[in-house]
Amino acid sequence: MMSCISIAVVNRAGILARWRRISPLGVWDDIVAAVLFMRILHKHDDGARKVRVYQSTLDGARFYYEGSALYTQVDGNGKNRLKYITMMGELLAERHDVLMLGTAGGALATKISRRGGQVTAVDCWDGAFDVARRWFQLPDEVECVHADALDFLRTTARQWDGVAIDVFRGGEIPSAMFAGDIGLLLAKVLRPGGVAVWNVADHPLSWPSERVVAALKRAGFKTALTPVLDTDGDNTLIVGHQQPSRL
User: Fold this and answer.
1) What does pTM read for this prediction?
2) Are 16 and 34 in contact (CB under 8 A)?
3) 176-185: string of b/e by CB count within 10 Å (b at 16+)?
């Protein structure tokens, strides 16, 4: 059972997200945060992205927002609080060596690393790694690579047991991630029997979900969809299992 404080923190996260949609320029951010018993730990605005890190003054929970999108939520010990991240970790539980495309606060990378897994985290914004290590307890053992996700997939010769895809700009998957060869690129970096887990911030019948499923099926993956309902929005995890070679 969630404590009253935990429920209050979750509700405040939703209120804060709605505020950030109303006030995208961050006007009155500090005042609104204080009213919600939160304080701002970090601000970044380079014109291309607006990132805020908040901390609850009640229980030390921390939140990573890009615009109005909540990317990461952890407790005072750096333990994940978002259901879709928990589910991604479970779907990758048997994978020792994992490639992560998209980092934000690094909650999934931290979860996998703390259980003894090896993680390679890729993000197109190198500042994400500094934020994740300073404010979200990303372990030093996590290998961080500053690169565009598609460029990395096309140039790396390495392979992993699993791949987690959690790439967004705000609440949308960048159109570049739907490149015609994305499924083949994911298959290329997976060892035989590997699994890809792709997060979509929408319902299973949404257009982005259908596009991800189609891309994976074209590359020979067997797909399954896992809906995740949370207080801060719905997600769909699309799991692609590599099929045995017919040769």
Assistant:
1) 0.85
2) no
3) ebeeeebbeb
